[in-house]
Specification:
mainly beta; 5 strands; two-stranded antiparallel ribbon
Amino acid sequence: MFILDDYISIDESSFTGETKPSMKMIDSISFGSRQTSISDRRNIVFMGTYVLNGNAKGIVICTGEN
């Protein structure tokens, strides 16, 4: 979960292959979130991606090889 002033723009091309920046914002994920595609997880930023614009603070929710 991120605590944001408004939103942040993320380059996820190395992770998803998508060339268009992804907008991340405060948002909740429904209980069935395990079925939510990675590109639809608007409140999570993944390792290996880059912040293009904006400010945020976050917490690590998972680490490891998988």
